[in-house]
């Protein structure tokens, strides 16, 4: 019986959803369409076997939602499982966005139109390899706030989020005419704490938000006692390297009766920068699937389709044994049933072949017509613009402030100290979160990488020279006991040797608006934006080949594709078909590193570093 962390450890060494029943203090109506009786889920009085797949609306352009939902149906599944991402909807306090790719009403209604039920996972904490586990940066800007606890500084805003979410979608529960069968309370809390008073308080907030239907919890089987509210339905999560029979034997020690469900079946895994791409074997997954089908156990694939953590949305892990920060890549391919571009994989075909032995043929919807994968000939980015063009008025402070203290949700921070006298020695900080480039008087002096526990370097500065520390902030930790403690930028005092270095200018760069940039044909020193155009003659998607570039971000026609970094394992960025235009397309690349060749090309596939194979 493995926890999520133990599963990750196993992967390193080897180189969903569901439904519930009546919550305490609030019985469901006797004529409720979705109920539990004995060991069965019942839908309109008949036994119902939940076969779900997880997909996340912000990781898929809205124009592709229906395509992906149809493919979920083509696998024979009957239910969509989906998180709700608080920080995507309320990036700044009180400013909510439920439009475009964040139109959750349209997402849920579209699932219903495609004949799918929905299992809702509203958080407030969602994990999901998503920045901060779904918490807005402004919410956990103070490391003394205790997330996932009864701390009123936590419970107040999180309850308000649930209430606002309820205003949007509580009317879409099954007994109100919508497709939502179940709403989850919290998320894998047993892997974090063991306060059931807190869990019941969250349950009460979900109820207060207007969700009157069935509720449920999910946890790893080994820690289910820590987080599961016994009076609800409780699901368990496990992965490819776990045996379903053993996981449910452990579950049986907690609860003897009621339906059984694997609420997250990890058929793949995610990737960190600087590691090899995860690739999970098919046979043990099929073995667990077959056992669960034979036992009539419900299940949910995590993920059936991962998609992409565009922009700044990817999260991070923290290895508590080595105290090492592990930022997630932008691709959320997850080695899933459908790849990052939404194409069925051999894993999809193997699962479908198994399901056809158990499910009537009319349950398998036809696959939509495939999208076109485009090859784009290599082209040069001929214009450049200095990052310094985006610097506005500085925020002054004695000691370095965090990104959150500057009121910025994400991006870069430039810290500048002007030497009043000649300086020489080791410049150090309490911590660098997450990657810093240091320059003295405009000349590069070195880099500091949080992954390598780097916090200082030797410098020498003349009187009047500017000491610049440009920090690229990456994903906030989304799992484990470091949640809420991952404020970004320079942490603690700045020191030169043993002496505190005071007097810092701060420039926060969210990179949300690049319209002020003025591009030119001349060479630009230091961190810079590069711009070019490429032609597309037909509709389709592509993967931009980033080999030869350093570290930064990429925009195509104004859409932020995510982070690129030469450390791998991801060496291309997915460009969805709806974000390309027939004709001329603009691409802008921010590269923090110097480089000779500034060219790009588009290909049909992601480019991975894999165990035993580093693609050149």
Write the topology of this structure.
Elements: H1 4-13, E1 34-37, E2 40-43, E3 46-47, E4 51-54, H2 65-74, E5 79-83, H3 86-89, H4 104-113, E6 117-121, H5 152-169, E7 180-184, H6 196-208, E8 214-220, H7 224-227, E9 233-239, H8 244-252, E10 261-266, H9 283-294, E11 298-302, E12 316-319, E13 324-327, H10 346-355, E14 376-380, E15 383-386, E16 395-397, E17 412-418, E18 423-433, E19 435-440, E20 443-449, E21 456-461, E22 466-472, E23 489-496, E24 499-500, E25 504-509, E26 528-536, E27 542-545, E28 551-556, E29 559-565, E30 572-575, E31 583-591, E32 599-603, E33 609-610, E34 613-614
Helix pairs in contact: 5-6
Can I get a quick summary?
With 616 residues, the protein is α+β, with helices and mostly antiparallel strands. The protein has 10 helices and 34 strands. It has an 8-stranded parallel barrel, surrounded by 4 helices.
Please give the order of strands in the largest beta sheet. Answer: 4-5-6-7-8-9-10-11
Tally the helices: what do you get?
10
Determine the structural class based on helices, strands and strand pairing.
alpha+beta
Distance from N terminus to C terminus (CA atoms, Å) equals: 39 Å
Overall mean pLDDT stands at: 94
Find the count of extended strands (DSSP E, 2+ residues).
34
- Residue stretches low in confidence (pLDDT < 50, at least 5 long) are 1-28, 612-616
How is the biggest beta sheet arranged? 8 strands, parallel, barrel
Q: Rg, please?
A: 25 Å
Helix residue percentage: 10-25%
Beta-strand share of residues: 25-35%
Anisotropy-based shape: globular
